[in-house]
Structures are given as structure tokens and as C-alpha cells.
Design goal:
Shape: globular
Structural class: alpha/beta
Strand content: 15-25%
Order of helices and strands: EHEHEHEEHEHEHEHEHEHEEEHHHEEHH
Number of helices: 14
Radius of gyration: 21 Å
Largest sheet: 8 strands, mixed
CATH superfamily of the largest domain: NAD(P)-binding Rossmann-like Domain
Strand order of the largest sheet: 3-2-1-4-5-6-14-15
Number of strands: 15
Number of domains: 2
Distance between the termini: 20 Å
CATH architecture of the largest domain: 3-Layer(aba) Sandwich
CATH class of the largest domain: Alpha Beta
């Protein structure tokens, strides 16, 4: 199989889909890998390193897309890349289609088979290809919040951990999954008072056992959220419904009750956001203010630490990419139910129910399409 790795073109996105070591694994298995010239530079990988791994360097992105049987990316394709879509293409990347109607329509119109990293799901409900980026985003959320709390950054001038005799900042985390857990670990380690709000009582019990420090856990309901948000210095939105649009658990009315100079970090913004006042921003223009509250809503937060992120992502995506290249799409997804759950579009059909429901479009089970092969 010919595998293409284009350079990411999203604003300040420095990650790359595979490390040189990951490329070498594909080449050793007998596959051809085309890497766009300079694709790895943002992560610290030179073209020469990819060549040593057996890749062919291609200066023309159009050739990477059109020559490849499978394209590996990090972020969802942007409109200027839609022209490369075609029926024979297998696309493997983060997609977040429930928040991307235009991209969804383009994939359907060109009959692209698209597998989303974020909906590859094991039987136990875990999301192996989303987890490392969720870990990074959760940890980054706290350091970003600490920065924007500083008066010089527009914040109310509070040190996250306080000092003896002075209250620490109050950090409210909505959602106790991977993002929320990692955010809580860092915030507690920095000395903040942390409130984690989560709908699963079993998860709250687990978090209370593994997290140590000034921690409060609350069951998720509108009153608990409203009260916590009103007194928060930092609110971190960490809600995930796999494949679906995130629910607005923090309303605009709640934001109006917050003190000016406090900070909202909506990590769920790539799925539409769990804060009603959120809208996607970028690394070059990361924040905006609503009612005096600073909002940081960058969908590709891990792109700011590409060296760490690329290694973490490649570690988990490489085995799946190798399986797809070795076995082909149909055999690979038949053999692996987790990978099959990652298929969002196939032959002009939506095969992810959450995406279909987000747009009121028809859902077609993947088994119905594979059965006609």
C-alpha cells in the first residue's frame, strides 16, 4: 500500500502523523510511504530522518494526497484540502465530524472512507487513539489557565497555588474522564483547590481514591455546576460524548456570574464545546472575553507541544495504520471491532451514529456496507 503523510496546515499545528520510526515500521512491512517535504520539521524531525526510515520525500502536497491509497494526518482536513478527496481514498486522522458539517458533506460527496482516531473504541469504552492527546490537553489546560490568571495576561492576578496565608485559586473541572483527571492532577500538584464535577458516582469514587490534595468531588447537575462556576477562578470544560457534539453544561447565564478576569478553558471545543459562550480560536489568536471572562478555546491544544504530542500519537496510531496497510480496509475493520467503530464515513454513507444524529442525516451501519463487498 502507498501511505501518504502530508504536512499539517492548520494554524500553528506542528504535529505530524508518524515519527520516522513509525514510517520505518511501515516500510519494513513492504509499504511505500510518501512524506511531504518539511512535514516533520515542527516536531523536530528532518526530511533526512524520514529518508533514513525508508520514506520518499515529496515536495508537492497534491502528489502526496493523490498517489496515496491511505492518508495519515493529525487534524481534520481543511477546505483547501477537500479537492484531494476521491472515492478510493482511505483517510485516517482526527475528524470531530459532529462539529464539522462542511467537512462531513465533502467526505460524503466524494465517497471517502474516513476513520476518526477519536471514535476508535474498545469494548470497555476506552478510546485508545484519543487518550494521549486528552492527557496532554488536560495537563496543558492548567498551565494555560495559570498564565491567563496573571494580571499581565488580562487575568485577575491570582497565583494558582496561592502562598501560606493566602487562598489558592479555585479550579472547577467539568468532566472526570481522561482530560479532567489529568487537569486535576496538575492543578492539585500546583496547590490549587480543585472541584471535579462528574455524572458517574463510581468515577467520582475512583478520583477521590487516586487524587490527593485539596479536592472536592460533586455529582453533575445544573445547580452544582452553577454554584461552582460562580465562585471559580478557572473553569476547565472536559466533557466528552464519543463522536457526538458536546452538551452545553456551562450556560451563558453561568458565565455572567463569574468574576471579571477569571478564565475558561474549553477543551471540548473541537466537539462543539461544553461552554455555551465558547467558539473555536487558534494558537495565533487564542483568547477572547465574554462578560469580562477570558475564554481559551484552541481546538488543537497539543499542537503547541508537538515533540511530545507526535511521539504520543504515533505510539498508538502506528499499530492500527500498519494493520490497515497490511490487511486492507475491509479485512482490518472486520477483524477489529474497535477499529470498525472508528469508521465515520464509507462509500458516501455516515457510519457513525452520533455524527448522523448531530446533523439529522441517515445512519448506515458499517456491517451493511461490508456485507455487500
Amino acid at each position: 500500500m502507498i501511505v501518504g503523510i502530508p504536512r499539517e496546515i492548520k494554524d500553528n499545528e506542528y504535529r505530524v502523523a508518524l515519527t520516522p520510526g513509525g514510517v520505518e515500521s511501515l516500510v519494513r512491512a513492504g509499504h511505500t510511504v510518501l512524506v511531504e517535504q518539511g512535514a516533520g520539521l515542527g516536531s523536530g524531525f528532518s526530511d533526512e530522518q524520514y529518508v533514513r526510515g525508508g520514506a520518499k520525500i515529496e515536495p508537492d502536497p497534491a502528489r502526496v494526497w493523490t498517489m496515496a491509497d491511505m492518508v495519515l494526518k493529525v487534524k481534520e482536513p481543511l477546505p483547501q484540502e477537500y479537492r484531494f478527496f476521491r472515492e478510493e481514498l482511505l483517510l485516517f486522522t482526527y475528524l470531530h465530524l459532529a462539529a464539522e458539517r462542511e467537512l462531513t458533506q465533502a467526505l460524503l460527496a466524494r465517497k471517502v472512507t474516513a476513520i476518526a482516531y477519536e471514535t476508535v473504541q474498545r469494548g470497555d469504552g476506552s478510546l485508545p487513539l484519543l487518550m494521549p492527546m486528552s492527557q496532554i490537553a488536560g495537563r496543558m489546560a492548567v498551565q494555560v489557565a495559570a498564565h491567563y490568571l496573571e494580571r499581565t495576561a488580562g487575568g485577575r492576578g491570582k497565583l494558582l497555588g496561592g502562598v501560606p496565608g493566602v487562598r489558592p485559586a479555585d479550579v472547577v473541572i467539568i468532566g472526570g474522564g481522561t482530560v479532567g483527571t489529568n487537569a486535576a492532577q496538575i492543578a492539585l500538584g500546583m496547590g490549587a483547590h480543585v472541584i471535579v464535577i462528574e455524572e458517574s458516582v463510581d468515577r467520582l469514587r475512583y478520583l477521590s481514591e487516586i487524587l490527593h490534595g485539596n479536592l472536592t468531588t460533586l455529582s453533575s447537575n445544573p445547580r452544582n455546576i452553577a454554584d461552582a462556576v460562580q465562585h471559580a477562578d478557572v473553569v476547565i470544560g472536559a466533557v466528552l460524548k464519543p463522536g457526538a457534539k458536546a452538551p452545553h453544561l456551562v450556560t451563558a447565564e453561568m458565565i455572567r456570574t463569574m468574576t471579571p478576569g477569571t478564565v475558561v478553558i474549553d477543551v471540548a471545543v473541537d466537539q462543539g464545546g461544553c461552554v455555551e459562550t465558547s467558539r473555536p480560536t487558534s494558537h495565533s489568536d487564542p483568547v477572547f472575553s465574554v462578560d469580562g471572562v477570558i475564554h481559551y478555546c484552541v481546538p488543537n491544544m497539543p499542537g503547541a507541544v508537538p515533540r511530545t504530542s507526535t511521539y504520543a500519537l504515533s505510539n498508538v496510531t502506528e499499530p492500527y495504520a500498519l494493520r490497515l496497510a497490511d490487511q486492507g480496509f475491509a479485512r482490518a475493520v472486520r477483524a477489529d471491532p474497535a477499529l470498525a467503530k472508528g469508521v465515520n464515513t464509507c462509500r458516501g454513507h455516515i457510519t457513525c451514529q452520533a455524527v448522523a444524529e448531530a446533523f439529522g442525516l441517515e445512519y448506515t451501519p458499517l456491517t451493511a456496507l461490508l456485507g455487500s463487498s
